[in-house]
Design goal:
1 helix; six-stranded antiparallel beta barrel; 28% helix
Length: 218
């Protein structure tokens, strides 16, 4: 009987110890998850502050009057490239205004409501802007491709344009101020007709990760 009692006591003690460890492990797991969440939140705040610092720094340097806006949505179809912004008519936003960030040209406002607006990005196929090779002063028309690159069209066959050339807005299209950075040349090709050439442009702005932008209002 004494041996049986000792065995039962040991088993009961082991069960209690196991349960205590199980509860403690669960508590520690929840604490670790909470700490990870807080760490991610702090890191996100740091990154957001850094982006706003870059925007504000550009805002102070630029000669344009601009309004900062957050990206709160994206187009749901595969045939256009549109973002939704948290600023609208109540903030002075109008159709046709140009959207930029501290890296370069982003797009143009195409629709507004009282508290939000939509902007088409420069990689949208329906987007077009007159452009200029900053080195050679060669002019062309930039169009979107819905991908990660742009196309600069209507270049003469004997045009002076090279890979790594910087492409900017020419200012000839009225809406777009001259000198906004569009991107760099990453490739050059010849049209099927053989009468003209085109250039592939890598945008200066990462259009897939936009979170904050600036809207030029004057």
């Amino acid at each position: 009987p004494l041996s049986l009692f000792s065995f039962v006591s040991r088993e009961a003690g082991g069960a209690i110890f196991f349960h205590h460890n199980l509860v403690e492990n669960e508590r520690l797991r929840k604490e670790i998850s909470l700490l990870k969440y807080r760490l991610n939140s702090v890191n996100e705040i740091y990154l957001e502050n850094k982006r706003f610092k870059d925007l504000l720094g550009f805002k102070e340097k630029t000669s344009y009057k601009v309004i900062a806006a957050r990206v709160i949505g994206h187009s749901l179809d595969n045939w256009s490239s549109v973002i939704i912004l948290d600023k609208g008519e109540s903030s002075g936003i109008k159709q046709g205004l140009i959207v930029i960030n501290y890296l370069g040209l982003v797009g143009r406002v195409i629709e507004t409501s009282k508290f939000s607006s939509k902007a088409v990005l420069i990689n949208d196929p329906n987007f077009g802007v007159s452009a200029l090779d900053q080195r050679s002063r060669q002019e062309g028309l930039i169009n979107g491709t819905l991908g990660s690159s742009l196309v600069m069209k209507y270049l003469p066959k004997d045009c002076d344009i090279q890979v790594l050339d910087t492409i900017i807005t020419s200012g000839l299209a009225g809406h777009y101020p001259k000198g906004l950075l569009i991107g760099k040349v990453v490739g050059i090709g010849e049209e099927f007709s053989g009468l003209s050439r085109y250039a592939i442009i890598k945008p200066a702005v990462d259009l897939t990760n936009l979170e904050e932008v600036l809207i030029i209002i004057s």
